[in-house]
Design goal:
74 residues, alpha+beta, 1 helix, 4 strands, 19% helix
C-alpha cells in the first residue's frame, strides 16, 4: 500500500475563476500560517497567470492524502 500527500492551494483569478496549485509531498508539520504566508507571497509576486488571468486572492488550501492499494489481477 502506498500513500501520497499533496498540498493544494486554491486561488481566485482576475475573472473570478479558481486556480489550484498542487505541491506533492509537502513537509511534515507544515502549519496553516506557513501556507497562508506562501499563498500571500505567490499573489504578491504575480508569477502565475493563465487564461483566467492573474491570481488575485486566496480561496482556500487543503492537505490531501491518498492511499493507493494495488489489486492483483488473475
Amino acid at each position: 500500500m502506498d500513500t501520497n500527500k499533496v498540498l493544494e492551494m486554491i486561488f481566485v483569478a482576475d475573472d473570478g475563476g479558481k486556480i489550484t496549485i498542487s505541491v506533492p509531498s509537502p513537509k511534515e508539520g507544515l502549519t496553516d500560517q506557513e501556507v497562508d504566508a506562501v499563498m500571500d507571497g505567490i499573489i504578491e509576486a504575480n508569477i502565475f497567470s493563465n487564461n483566467h488571468g492573474s491570481l488575485v486572492e486566496k480561496s482556500g488550501a487543503r492537505k490531501v492524502t491518498k492511499t493507493i492499494e494495488e489489486i492483483t489481477l488473475q
